[in-house]
Amino acid sequence: MSDYAHIASAFDRDLESIQAMIMKMGGLVEAAIQDASKSLDTRDEELAEQVRRADKRIDALEDEVNIAAARLIALRAPTAGDLRMVLSVIKISANLERVGDYAKNMGKRTSALVQMDQIEGAGGAIRRMSRAVEAMLKDALDAYVQRDADLAEDVRQRDADVDQMYNALFREFVTFMMEDPRNITACMHLHFIAKNIERMGDHVTSIAEQVIYTVNGEMPEESRPKSDRTSYEGLEPR
């Protein structure tokens, strides 16, 4: 085997190892979204706490991806398309970590909401919104594995649907608060949860854009479709 072939083979093995971490991380994040929305809908405080604890593993995996990617760049000195793939996995892992943070925040809010009266229909509506984001994430990860830019673009376009769901919920919560001031605290918690899910959709869209970048060598030319018009500050996870 020539030196070049040996180096290429080693690079491929190292990259496959990093990609396996990405897929494991993605599976944990999918589960976090599902469990966080279920805990809210069923008022399951124990499940919400599990989501919060599980976030540590997602954070740890992001660290592992970053260390492995930095080592790969240092040892293999990838260029052109190979370097593009390595840089993309770093950005994808960062977006996955942020989605995990938002799921953790949902768990925190759920623990507070179980002590309050339910807002009719809110749990089910938020769960539907969560399922839309979860499906986007699954397809984004499939697109990454399959190097499917068309599927990634489909995910990117679906973010507008999530924004529309959020806008509808926002209007509902405002109505509930205006009708009865006793609903204000619960509706504010629910609004933050809905906004967290909307932001999840944004990060999943960023993952899809990284897939397109990996496949085509450039980011999408068209600006991403956005339907969120509420502009609420201070909603980044802490």
Quick overview of this protein structure:
The chain has about 240 residues and is mainly alpha-helical. The chain contains six helices and no strands. The protein is elongated.
Overview of this protein structure:
The structure is a single chain. By secondary structure, the chain is mainly alpha-helical. 82% of the residues lie in helices and 0% in strands. The chain contains 6 helices and no strands. Helix 1 (3-42) packs parallel to helix 3.
Keywords:
single chain, 238 residues, disordered N terminus, disordered C terminus
Query: Percent of residues in beta strands?
Result: under 5%
- Helical fraction equals over 70%
Poorly predicted ranges (pLDDT <50, ≥5 residues)?
1-6, 231-238
Shape annotation: elongated
| N-to-C order of helices and strands | HHHHHH
Can you count the beta strands?
0
Helix count equals 6
Distance between the termini: 50 Å
Summarize the helices and strands and which ones pair or pack.
Blueprint: H1 3-42, H2 45-76, H3 80-113, H4 122-146, H5 149-179, H6 184-216
Helix pairs in contact: 1-2, 1-3, 1-4, 2-3, 3-6, 4-5, 4-6, 5-6
